[in-house]
Write a structure and sequence with these properties.
With about 625 residues, this protein is mainly β. It contains 7 helices and 40 strands. The longest helix is centred in the first third of the chain and has 11 residues, at about 40-50.
């Protein structure tokens, strides 16, 4: 049994069924932060249950994994609004493309993408974003840090069918001694050929892609046994290998890989969607296993998010702006959830640095705070990040400052302008923010997380503020004053292009189905933040005379007041689990940061300075 399986056995839990992701007017359940193991579609759960439900596992190796650990809506050109729903597992990714109303579960061509470096964007075989092949992701064994000499996906580029016409000869009835190293060099391992002749005898030749399949893998692919169908235990084919795996894109090769700290000989074969491994020294039930392609692909596509399958939940501090250093400008501080360990987070030479959102990651070193600051030319607000060590990195350059050659193109800027309220998407790849770069009022923009390819999302004579994302990346929420009172809005993101490649980045999206959720002509409503599970919004309103914190469903119904104080309560922010809310209030004469429970109970003051502490940011 592999080390990963032993680790994950201890964590196996009964997984929850949530809502279907079929597109509707309201956001579907999306819980990468509130409950990352939840299934976001019963169809995903049914596919997983067939082979990997504890009721039928019976000591055999897993086909998907112990459960899901990340879901999102990824760009796919032909899908409704250019987004398809996906959920990641150790061994693969499930997806529902929704094209033409089809809600069948499919599996992506993840292995093809990893070997070729071509991130698939749509149905057309040439509709890809060119990236580098996965040259730091081993195809078998432990991660790159402890397994750096083992072949990676990039190592197989010269022997794989990836839109290049490559084919191997029909070698049925021969046994496998072919080996490959990290550089892609081939050799012959006569010792392995002789030791495992029957297991590695080639028994099938796929004429479509031109590759041979050995007996040990063919038997596994056609395995029958206990399965779950319609939530009932029965027997049958464990998986439909043609849909679950796709066609072979290489012949089998022996590799040397470190597994649990021990170097072993492993036979691997790459298919379009999966990898099969044969480790002769494993226990019999685990000699053939599905490779951890879902983990491998996630590392390649979402390098900034770490390893959610192998990590504890992220822990984020409460960031806030403070004038406690005695100056007229705001500095950014951070503290623990109980108010302890309050410390300057951004460096001392900042000018009016105000926090807005966290890039959440399962790797602590990758956690970043997005802020807007006047640190550039000292006058205009620009977007920066603050790393876990307090180091600052500039993102936008619209203030007239010199732009370094390494900074991606951020559009034509006619005169120095301001960028503020940077809201990073849950997958860490996009920014929604406010800018007056087109002159006049603050407008709603979206860009890549590095500021590249900015797109203006909304037009009209409105002042926009406070963008925030739904947890599945399908919707944006914001506040806008369009000549009367400020209200909270929701809009569908309709993606026309999302192509981050080594040759440049091109993003274009529009807002559709814009809905005024608070729809007030007599009060101001703002500072919306969406809960981690995607079902609730907290916001502020002065409808009762002064600013208080309210909550509502994401369709605008069920608006409920959470605070009631003599002062103003503003800037609510959820924690990562959606169990607490931070906010700021001047109820005691100056601004301080507080927390409370979801129903408004348990309001606790965390900062007690004579100077103002404001604009708390916790889990968003």
């Amino acid at each position: 049994m592999s080390r990963l399986i032993k680790i994950r056995l201890a964590a196996a839990l009964c997984l929850l069924m949530l809502l279907s992701i079929i597109t509707s007017a309201l956001p579907a359940a999306a819980a990468p932060w509130a409950n990352r193991s939840a299934f976001v579609s019963p169809k995903f759960e049914a596919v997983w249950q067939r082979s990997d439900d504890p009721r039928v596992r019976d000591g055999r190796s897993l086909y998907w994994g112990f459960g899901a650990w990340f879901d999102y809506s990824e760009f796919y050109r032909e899908s409704p609004n250019g987004l398809r729903r996906v959920q990641y597992f150790d061994k693969a990714r499930m997806e529902i493309n929704g094209i033409g109303g089809n809600t069948d579960v499919t599996n992506g061509l993840l292995v093809v993408e990893l070997v070729s470096g071509q991130l698939k964007l749509g149905d057309n075989s040439y509709d890809n974003a060119e990236r580098s092949p996965a040259n730091r992701v081993p195809v078998a064994g432990d991660g790159y840090t402890t397994n750096s000499n083992s072949p990676t996906y990039a190592s197989f580029a010269g022997v794989a069918t990836i839109n290049n016409g490559y084919r191997d000869a029909d070698r049925r009835d021969q046994s496998i001694g072919d080996a490959i190293d990290k550089s892609g060099n081939k050799s012959t391992r006569s010792d392995l050929l002789n030791a495992y002749k029957e297991q590695t005898k080639l028994v099938v030749y796929n004429t479509t892609t031109g590759h041979n399949i050995p007996a040990v893998f063919w038997n596994f692919m056609n395995r029958t046994g206990a399965i779950i169908v319609n939530n009932q235990r029965t027997t049958g084919a464990v998986v439909d290998w043609s849909s679950a795996m796709g066609l072979p894109i290489t012949d089998p090769y022996w590799v040397r890989a470190v597994v649990g700290g021990v170097e072993k000989d492993i036979l691997v074969q790459l298919f379009e969607r999966r990898i099969l491994t044969y480790t002769p020294t494993n226990d019999a039930a685990y000699q053939v296993e599905m490779g951890n392609v879902g983990q491998h692909y996630f590392q390649w596509r979402y390098t900034q998010l770490g390893e959610p399958w192998n990590s504890a939940e992220p822990t984020l501090k409460i960031a806030f702006a403070s004038k406690r250093d005695g100056g007229s400008e705001w500095d950014t501080y951070a503290m623990n959830a109980d108010g302890g360990s309050q410390a300057l987070f951004a460096s001392n030479d900042t000018k009016e640095t105000v926090p807005y959102s966290w890039l959440r990651s399962w790797k602590p070193d990758n956690v970043k705070l997005f802020v807007d600051s006047r640190r550039g030319n000292g006058t205009n607000r620009q977007i920066w990040t603050v790393g876990a060590d307090g180091s600052m990195n500039r993102i936008t350059y619209t203030d007239g400052s010199p732009i370094p050659p390494s900074v991606p193109y951020q559009g034509y800027i006619p005169s120095p302008s301001n960028d503020w309220n940077p809201s990073v998407s849950p997958d860490g790849t996009k920014l929604a923010f406010i800018s007056d770069r087109d002159g006049g009022k603050g407008q709603l923009y979206i860009s890549y997380v590095n500021g590249a390819s900015p797109t203006r999302l909304a037009t009209g004579d409105c002042n926009y503020t406070s963008p925030t994302w739904s947890s599945d990346g399908r919707y944006l929420y914001w506040a806008a004053d369009c000549g009367g009172k400020s209200n909270v809005y929701r809009g569908d993101l309709r993606w026309i292009n999302d192509s981050p490649s080594i040759y440049g980045e091109f993003l274009y999206t529009e807002l559709g189905n814009i809905v005024n959720l608070t729809n007030s002509t007599t009060s101001d409503n703002g500072f919306p933040r969406v809960s981690p599970d995607g079902f609730k919004i907290v916001f502020t309103s002065n409808r009762d005379g002064n600013y208080e914190i309210y909550a509502m469903n994401t369709d605008g119904t069920g608006q409920t007041r959470l605070t009631s104080s003599s002062g103003d309560d503003l800037a609510p922010s959820w924690n990562l689990t959606g169990t607490k809310i931070a906010f700021d209030s001047n109820r005691d004469g100056n601004w301080n940061v507080y927390t409370m429970n979801l129903d408004g109970s348990g309001q606790t003051q965390l900062t007690t300075n004579a100077a103002d502490d404001r604009w708390s940011v916790w889990g968003q």
